[in-house]
Amino acid sequence: MFLTISPTAQKVLKKYTDNKKLHVLLSFDDGVGIYSKLQATCGLETNFDIIIVNDTADLTDYETAIDSSLGRFLVKDYSLEFLDDETYLGTDQFNLLVLSGQYTGIIDNNVSLKDFSNYTPNSHALMEKTDLI
Length: 133
Prior knowledge:
By secondary structure, this protein is mainly beta. It is about 10% helix and about 40% strand.
């Protein structure tokens, strides 16, 4: 599996991928883990985020690495089933990040970029209390 990143998307991500103390996560937003705020959805949507974390971050759910034009991205192992062997990260006319596959077409037309690189393991900033149904 390889993630090809367009030159315009590279401009957005380069400052993170050049810093060896940071990890880049291509995170399937499915409610699993501390970086996902999704609780439930009735849609058949596939949502991905690019999450930037520092070298003290909890990477428990991100056990697999994929190569990209900008180096290694970490992913949840089971999220690979939503990606093609040749996956592409580009931008649209509004400079939104778009994830697409060689065979599947558009996977996510609005990939969020979340920079959590300043958070420490004890900050609890990611773990907000939510209402239970």
